Structures are given as C-alpha cells and as structure tokens.
Predict the 3D structure of the following.
Amino acid sequence: MKKWLIPLLLVFTLGACGNDEETVVEETKRALPDAVTEVYADYQTALESGDAEALAAIDYAGRLTDIPATGAVTRQLAPGDIYESWVNEEEDVAFLVHEMVDQDGNPLPNRLSKVAVKEGDDWSLVITPTALPEDVIAEVGELLIGIQANEYGVNAEANARLAEVPEDEAGPIYDRVNAQTDYTALEADNNVFLLMAETLTVEENQAIMADYFKAYETWYTAATEDPIEYIEVLDPLKTKLEEAIDGFDEQLVDPSFG
C-alpha cells in the first residue's frame, strides 16, 4: 500500500511464549451496531456532496471538515462499502476498513479505515485529526491483535484489475489512485492503526501515540486556513507533517506476550 506518511516501522519478532501446548483462543465476532452503519452512510453522503457541515455533525473532532469535504469533490473520490469491521466488548469503540471509489463507483486499490467512538448515545467517526484519548487507542489495539495491514489495507482485486488495463488507459486511473493516497492528508490517518495493531496494547505506546495524534492535530489545524490552497500545496504540507511526527516510531516499545 503506497503511503506518503512516514512509515512506523513496526516489524517485531515475537518469541515463543515458553508453552509447548498451543492455546486456542475463541474469538467472538460482533456485528457492527446499526448506529455505526448509519453514521458511516452519513459520512458517505457528506463526502459525495462535499457537505462540510453534515460531516462536522458526525466527526469526532467536529471541526475543520471543510478540508476533507472540499478534497473529496475536487479529487472526485468517495467512500465505498465497508470491507471489514471490529467492535469491542463494551460496544463503544469500533474500527472500520472501507473502500474508496472513483467517480464511476469503481473501487480503488488502497482502502482507508476509520475509528468510531460512542459518547453517550451517539457514535462519531474520527475523520479529521484529533487528540485521541489513550483508552480509545488501547481499545483499537485490542481489536486489531493478529490483523495484517496488507490483508485489509489493499483491495487485491482492484489492484489486479488495474494491471490488466491497456497502458494508454492506465494513466488517468493511476492518477486517481495517487489522488486517493493524497487523500489521507485530508483526513485523520486511521490507517496507522492497521500498521501498528497489537503494538497499541502496550500502555507506554498508548501514551506515545496520544502525543502522536496531538502532533497530527496541531499540524492539521495550522494547515487549514484555506481549503483550496491546502489541496494545491499538499507536497510541502506533507513534508511539514513528516517533520511534526518525526521520531515517534523510535519511542515505541516492542510488545511482549510471554
């Protein structure tokens, strides 16, 4: 999955737990609450129409949504179907992986993801960058134990389809793929959760990532004075983001499970 964001290199070799008997863990798959599905549908509608106000109503941060709303319309991108989802036992935190589609509704190779949080009776999506609390980060980490980013972050069928497109037709399609990759600058980088998975279950790492999201939010807030200019000058802004979050990956602790 192509990403411009500085990758958090989280390749850990986990040693054996010292138990000769293999432990079988039964996992209960929880259905996504209807309320989350409804909020996601509202998210789709808001981006398809570029409605920043409607987007703000379901955004966890609830502000600065003119950027993703403008970006979606300008780049002719929209959220597609939910591909996979996970919900915690308390049913107050969920994680969604969803397709992105072009103006004709065709899924693009790179999928995006969303964290959903329930506060009181209402669910919201983490769309624009915000300072996430450590307990939410921890819950997502638990949900994603054993998840492989490349299995969920890339639509293999869409990727294979592009490989079969005649060369003279491929350029515009790959431009759309690259536009989607840039799109992660217009929303919170929830895909970082897929890259980290169970690393987020380490308490020290939760504190580090809380600071990471604060840095991301600070960068985003400073970059949103003019939505159009923001979209036109993504490259230097991405460089500034890389500088803002530089070093967080070096602070992370290797998770240990026995």
